Amino acid sequence: MGTQVALFADTIIATFLAAGALSALYYADRLNQLPIGVIGIVDDADKLIGVFTDGDLRRLIEKGFDLRQVTAKDVMHTSPRTIRVNELAAMAAEMMETHSITSILVLDANDKLCGIVHISDLMRAKVI
Questions:
Q1: What domains lie within the chain, and their CATH numbers?
Q2: Average pLDDT, stretch 102-106?
């Protein structure tokens, strides 16, 4: 029997911010404060509606966007990779490898964002 994602889901890293509420500049500041570089964007019911990453931020800067005028809702990915909190950690590792990503957002049984799992968490636990 394997270890569930619930043991690795970090609820402090997954920042729950409402879509479109603040400019991308605010999100950029939050990305600098959090070590993983991923922010889950949720609606008023804490249901995941998108993701904004440090890579997204770099691309916006490269393209010359005014971060004060662009909201996260304008630039977020609306189909982020997710895993259920009760799934096995090995499945999270497989998803990361398949999709060439380093983090997966974790959803509970009601589709609410409840955390994030980073590849370093899985490596420290010797899941991968």
A1: 5-124 (3.10.580.10)
A2: 92
